[in-house]
Amino acid sequence: MNRSSEKNSAKIMYFLSIVLGAIVLFSADSFPEASRPYVTIGGFALLMLGLYKSTTTWVRENPNPKSEQDSFVVYENDESVKEDE
């Protein structure tokens, strides 16, 4: 298995966990009253895990080129900052 197919299979697994978590979360009312909180928590956890893993994968694959330049902190000895005089 090459690296590209491993990434694609991971993306598919994250997407399926999002969909499955949403289905379980929205169908929690059909479960018995005693187990409904556990089903809701499980669905929510599965949904959040899928969202977390998919966003970390997306950020790793698509880095922001401006992330180092978007700082609001300006140092006195920073020559790249031009002062308006």
Structure description:
- This protein is an all-alpha fold.
- It has a domain at 17-60.
- The protein is 59% helix and 0% strand.
- It has two helices and no strands.
- α1 runs antiparallel to α2 (36-61).
- The protein is elongated, with a radius of gyration of 22 Å.
- The mean pLDDT is 81.
List the SSEs and their pairings:
Blueprint: H1 3-26, H2 36-61
Helix pairs in contact: 1-2
Structural class of the helices, strands and pairings? Answer: mainly alpha
Query: Topology as H/E string?
Result: HH
Summed up, the helix count is 2
Mean pLDDT equals 81
Quote the beta fraction. under 5%
The backbone outline, from C-alpha atoms, is elongated
Span between termini: 60 Å
Total DSSP E strands: 0
- In terms of per-residue confidence, which ranges show pLDDT below 50 for 5 or more consecutive residues? none
